[in-house]
Amino acid sequence: MEERGFQVNGQETQASNTKKKFSDRENKGKIEDILNPNITVYKNSANTFKRCEINLIPDKQVESYRYMYQMRILEALDDRFSNLSTILKDHYNLEISDAFHINRDEIHTVGRICCDSEGNLNTESVLLEIPEKRNRLRLSFDGLKSFSLFSGQIVGVEGTNSTGNHLNMSRIFEIPLLPMCKTPSSELIEYNYGQEKLNGNPLNIVIAAGPFTFNNGFEYEPFKELLSKVNQDKPDLLILLGPFVSEDHLLLKEGKTSKTPGEIFKECIIDELCKVTNVSIVLVPSTKDLFHPFVFPQSPFPKHVLSKNVICVSNPAQFRVNEITFAIDNVDILFHLINNAIERIDGNAKPGLDRMGRLSRHILTQRHLYPLFPTYEEVNLEFKKSSYLELQQLPDVLILPSKLKSFAKVVENVICINPGYLSRDESAGTYAKMTIHPLPKTLIKEDQLIENSVFKRTRVEIIKI
């Protein structure tokens, strides 16, 4: 492979000859993890274009808006707390008492977890904020065998306050999960067995997250390799998650290129995507994309610059592929949570869930794609648009790209995927491939709403590019 350089002040500079060629990388194509290995793979034929129908979920596509006109953050937080506290009280039939009064009997209250300082949570720094009281109460964990908490989490609490300044917890009540997605039986038959749709065959989806090029150049070799693989295998859908031109790219940070981020996006991404035929493509922006507004939630990329087979969605994104509901949060919420959450896990608590599974579960139980508050310093959350981050139902698939180790796992009957990054500084990364088999006809009862049960019929592979 020919070595290419980068431009410094308009002059072409050759990359170091000691740089290891991308073509010489080790373990290319290696399957690093498999979810449901008992489910078979399926190779598409050449004429499978448009076997999948993509529909945006109403009221969850963020359109372009004016930012830097922030509403009162407190109002947005209070509205969310009011809604969820009502759900908690009704679900558990809780009789709420004043947690600040000295009381040796166990009482119930609902509040928001917060920290007593600007640092991360620890068991000595956790407070429970009661918004109605505009006050906070310190929490004691001595009576709990198991817990997993983070700043901003809304919970119900059972405990005693024998001193007036500490609530000794004996139980934590989580927000109940939303219902799983259901589909009318007629639609399931049409999508899974219709001759113009899947005709009884599986659906193939490839998911990849940026960065898509190495830190020492703009050759976009991992990205081109992925598109070559896509053109060869012809999956039904390719989901690409930014950043496509990252603010963290070393040469851009140092100003060692004469091209603008928009020009790099046009030449290295858009022009390459035009070469992909007979595959539907979904593009999701990132707050790290230098050529796109950085506020979260983000509006989609402009459609007019892209080919017809490309669908631009917002960040976060919620959409359906046939009957299957996808939710995507293209901010590294897993990394942000892991640096804030505190845990004590009893051996009998939620068996089968590792820490990544528990962090993913927090997003599902909080019904929100960025439940952490205060937000991580790199996230510019526009609170007046925070309703776009709320989940309406449990999705069938939750995609959470992160710098943490890639994974695919089932959490509360939801397939949670971190595809990893396609490029990691100067080393090749990973992507994910899904094979989703049709729901068996025997489970599709006529004239009924049927749970999609995607977690039972899907194989996910994490693959080294």
TrEMBL record:
Residues 1-26 are annotated as: Disordered. One of its GO terms (cellular component) is alpha DNA polymerase:primase complex. Residues 75-174 form the DNA polymerase alpha subunit B OB domain. InterPro entries: DNA_pol_a/d/e_bsu (IPR007185), DNA_pol_alpha_bsu (IPR016722), OB_DPOA2 (IPR054300). Keywords: DNA replication, Nucleus. Residues 8-17 have a biased composition (Polar residues). Residues 205-409 form the DNA polymerase alpha/delta/epsilon subunit B domain. Transmembrane segments: none annotated. One of its GO terms (biological process) is DNA replication initiation. It is found in: Nucleus. One of its GO terms (molecular function) is DNA binding. Pfam families: DNA_pol_E_B, OB_DPOA2. It comes from the Eukaryota. PANTHER family: DNA POLYMERASE 2 ALPHA 70 KDA SUBUNIT, DNA POLYMERASE ALPHA SUBUNIT B. Belongs to the DNA polymerase alpha subunit B family. This is DNA polymerase alpha subunit B. The lineage of its organism: Eukaryota, Fungi, Fungi incertae sedis, Mucoromycota, Glomeromycotina.
